[in-house]
Amino acid sequence: MGPGFPQANAQPAQQAAIIIALVAIFIVVLVYLATSILFLISLQRTLEAVKRRNRTLEPGLVWLLLVPILNLFWVHVLAKQIPRSLQNEYSDRGWNTAGESFAFKAGQVWSWATILEIFASIASEISQSPFIKLVNVAFLIAIACSSVSFWVQTASYRRELKLRKTNNFTYDLTSELEAYTTELSLDPPDGEWQAAPPKPKVQREDIDDLERRAREL
Question: Sorted alphabetically, which keywords does the UniProt record give (predicted)?
Fold first, then answer.
């Protein structure tokens, strides 16, 4: 019976190791999916911040990146069309685009590294070469870094679009309202110019409604 005890003890240990490995894999997959969803939500909101006439891609189409096989092509579409949409929006508003990359460089690294990593992974499985495995790891690191950079840069452009749009619109609207409330009218009996009676004060709700309508244009 002596030799049987190590085997009996080894089985629970192996089962525990398998369970731990499965839990670890589940956590990694869950974190990856959660990060991917947050990433795509950010890209969708970035496109939503761009006027429809300036978009080269509809916001909801970013989710096609989750479709297997198609995502190998779609990553190139996102990496190209999102920066182009941002550039169109800047130009349409008359903002200076000199020196602005609109995350184009980060997007190109992200898209091409994704394709090259697939080939490196296949080659690594075929040849079992340590060098090719190292190259594959390098591509994975490049994908992670460039995708995060693309995420951060596009989110930064989105915040700038919303901030400058709101500030400019509020300033113009306030100026027009002030000019309107200080108009002069002619008093018929005296024939002299007098300040017009105070106009009804514009409510904040009216300004918010006008801002909302302007964003929809």
Answer: Membrane, Transmembrane, Transmembrane helix
